[in-house]
Amino acid sequence: AVNKLREVLRPEGRAALGGDPAGAASVSESEADLDLWDEELEAVAHLREMAAWENEVGKVKAVIDAAEARVAGTATAAQLSAAQQQEVEVEAAEAAAAEATEAQAAEAA
């Protein structure tokens, strides 16, 4: 539609429609206005496209953040399990050492 309007507003288009060729200056101004309008429309379209991409990037980032949080939570749970397991092993070793000491004391007595 914009291209069709441009064709009509060009001097050749106006002449074809019976327009005044002396109005070429106003036609040139109209063409400049249309060029500016085209640039503005392209800029708006580009901004909309960028906003859509930013929206998609935001969604992807949220998914990544959630996955990282799950991984961190799992790693923390695994670390806690490993620490708890190590604590149990230390307690078992201490208990075994205490029993051995008691057994040696009983044998010595």
From TrEMBL:
<protein>
    <submittedName>
        <fullName>Uncharacterized protein</fullName>
    </submittedName>
</protein>
<keyword id="KW-0175">Coiled coil</keyword>
<feature type="coiled-coil region">
    <location>
        <begin position="50"/>
        <end position="103"/>
    </location>
</feature>
